[in-house]
Amino acid sequence: MDFGPYLFLAVLEGTVTAAVLALTALGLSLVFGVMRIVNVAHGEFFMLGAVLAWWFSSMVSGSPAIGFLVAIVMAPLVVGAIAVLCERTVLKRINYDPEATIVATIGILYIIQQLALTFYGADARPVQAPVNFRVVFPWFGYSGYKLVVIAASAVLLLATWFVLTRTRFGLIMRATQFDSETAQAFAIPVDRVYAVVFAIGAMLAATAAVLIVPIQQAHYLMGGDPLLLSFIVVIIGGLGSIFGTVVAAIIIGISDGVISVFFTPTLAKILATLLVALVLVLRPQGLFGKTPR
Amino acid sequence: MVLEVRDINTSYGDVQILRDLSLKVEAGEVLCMLGRNGAGKTTALKAIMGLVRPRSGSISLDGVELTAMPAHKVPKQGIAYVPQGRRLFSELSVAENIEIGLMARGKGRDTRDRVLNLFPVLNERMKQRSGTLSGGEQQMLAMARALCLEPKVLLLDEPTEGLMPSMIAAIRDSVTELRAQGVAIILVEQRVDAVLPVADRVAFIENGRTRDTVDVETLHGDLSLVHKYVGVGH
Q1: Count: domains in chain A
Q2: Of B87, B45, B53, which Cα lies nearest the Cα of B70?
Q3: What is the domain range of residue A113?
Q4: Cross-chain CB nearest to A190 (options B49, B72, B96)
Q5: Which domains are present in chain B?
Q6: Which H or E element spans position A183?
Q7: pLDDT tens, position by position, A21-75
Q8: What's the gap in Å between the CA of A175 and the closest CA on chain B?
Q9: What is the ipTM of this complex?
């Protein structure tokens, strides 16, 4: 294959990575932005989404599309419920203290991971893609499902943006983000907003995971990479900036795809981490972040 | 209609801020809290809003106990707050700040129109990010946002701080107007000249206690209490 088509393939692969990463990182960014806490267990919500997707789709017999549809509705809902449970029983009780939250969510990370190992096991299991067609380019055929992933992720990102900027709940979320004390003085139940935001963050990660399991199998240790990459994306994009998160996810995702195809995935991770270091030194508020007042 | 604060004690960690502080304000009355920096005036307002929990004492509005009420339910009782330094949602537009005020007690277009009639300058700025308004406009927006609750009680924390004289006059006029409409107002100030023209009664706060509460007439021509509690030069 010539260089041109080869690069095109690499960019396509990178775009799939970017699409899933943007959703996952947006979840982390929302929680980070609105609640001012770092959720180290974010990757485990991603993993739970994938594992539950396998569980739900294997329960449904018949066409793989039905199993997948059940999974993409149910898995994020269950993960959201688990996130609310964690928020109510742990984060609320430590009063969202930033340092304590890091330690507490490390604990949640291990609890979820070990529960997955106990009940799901150490195997990697696939979920069948809901659609099975190939898009034929002049140089190579490409999985149609991967293009569906890109489209679905774009729709979800737009939907999130719409909710945040055009709805009442989005306004309440943004007010809470900018000044939670004053928000309370205007009858906004801040701790309920926190619970919902934490659930939405986890559900975005879970949805991303359901989208990716037909491509990449479900495994109880799969949460590590999305967590690392989400942190990279949130730091580069800037705290609380949705636009920045999406742009950074595209930069990191596509460069990850291209470098992985031409060189090695390890080099891609090295460069992404180096980019974070540079951003932290040269522009600590992130590419699109606002300087804290 | 009466807001009554009785013997409240609050502390931040080990530091006690309010000691048996008591206040009372009725409909159509302006009570002014005067005192030095750190006397506990702002903390008293936050305690009324439920943002600071008193260790003891009680706060009630028309007999409804507010002391243990969750902070987000207090404004629903009809108490609106204009915090010190305005505390606008500065990243949000003027229209969005107003919207948050309206949502607090489910008020609609009528309220919005009435409030904007009081501060017509905001009409031209609706889409602007509120953090980019001038100081006076920001204060007007903070007042407007609070008035969107159609409050029975309005808490104003140093509304004239850092404003130019024409703005101070505009804020003073709106306070007078609200009093005429029967709103109970608690006004925190450090400067006595900003207080005398609008207040009905003045409560002097020192070290977290209400030292003296006097009718404002007592202070016309005799500023000895002011000198005692606020200091010379005011």
Answers
A1: 1
A2: B53
A3: 22-223
A4: B72
A5: 1-78+151-165+178-234 (3.40.50.300), 89-148 (no CATH)
A6: helix A180-185
A7: 999 999 999 999 899 999 999 999 999 999 999 999 999 887 889 999 999 999 9
A8: 6
A9: 0.93
